[in-house]
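We emphasize that the prediction below concerns an isolated chain of 212 residues; any contacts that depend on oligomerization or on bound cofactors are therefore not represented. The input was used exactly as deposited, without trimming of termini.
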Amino acid sequence: MKEGLERTLVLVRHGQSEWNEANLFTGWCDVSLTPLGIQEAQRAGRALKTHGFCFNLAFTSALRRAKDTCKLILEELGQDDIPVVEDGALNERHYGDLCGLNKAEAAERWGEDQVHIWRRSFTETPPGGESLKTTAERVIPFVEKRILPEVVSGKSVLVAAHGNSLRSLVMDLEGLSPEQIEELTLATAVPRIYRLNEDGSIAERYDLKDEE
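Result of the prediction step, given as a token string:
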């Protein structure tokens, strides 16, 4: 491994999906990246390559938009031969009855204030779906059992997943409160870099902005 990359964790939200573009609630619906989303993932890979990142392994969800983002990044890095672990624990939050609805349509049906609460609240659950709290309850055990031990052992790890599953991960890693995590939004395909100490605490954290 390149010197200085030990105990590195890189989080990347997938590039723009077809339903992101259409402003639809996606959740577990398995939609593809748009051409822009493909370009975003490729740019993320090139930015990581420019800064000398080299990964030992990668994790991604079971949904194609995250898997394809992971694949495109690793191809840009010339590292598509490393182990990649796919697991549904990293899937996006399930939006239940909201899935497939335009956000404006959902607001007409349930009211704009209620939809906003479902989207941003930590504990409120949309009909038939998951809250951010219940999403965190499946994400965090997987992260603590499978991902963080790899990083703390000295490896450099890429995680390509979703806005809400990654927010859950960030909440645990940074020790954020429910109120703080409600305010956090992760941009598509912008790598969020963590360097950890031997005890798992954060030594450094920054976002790798697109420089093209």
